[in-house]
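Input record, target 12 of the design panel.
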C-alpha cells in the first residue's frame, strides 16, 4: 500500500515522493510548491475534515483531501502523543 498525504495526522512531517492524477491537477499542485522532494508538515484539518492545512517552503497552504490522495509521501517525523 502506498502512503498518501491524506493519511497523515496533524504534527506529522513527510517528504513528497510522487504526484498522481490528471495533468491539470499535477500542474496545479506543482505551481503551489508541492513537488517531489519537498518536506510538508500537516498542521491541521478543518472541523469537518476537509480541507487540510499544510506548512511547506515557509508558508501555509490549504488543499482538499481529494487532492492530497494524489500525493505519495514518506513519513519523516511522527507527533509524540
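The sequence produced for target 12 reads:
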Amino acid at each position: 500500500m502506498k502512503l498518501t498525504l491524506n493519511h497523515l495526522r496533524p504534527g506529522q512531517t513527510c517528504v513528497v515522493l510522487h504526484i498522481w492524477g490528471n495533468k491539470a491537477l499535477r500542474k496545479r499542485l506543482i505551481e503551489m510548491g508541492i513537488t517531489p522532494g519537498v518536506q510538508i508538515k500537516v498542521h491541521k484539518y478543518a472541523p469537518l475534515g476537509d480541507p487540510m492545512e499544510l506548512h511547506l517552503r515557509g508558508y501555509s497552504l490549504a488543499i482538499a483531501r481529494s487532492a492530497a490522495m494524489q500525493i505519495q509521501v514518506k513519513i519523516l517525523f511522527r507527533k509524540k502523543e
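The chain has one domain: 5-77.
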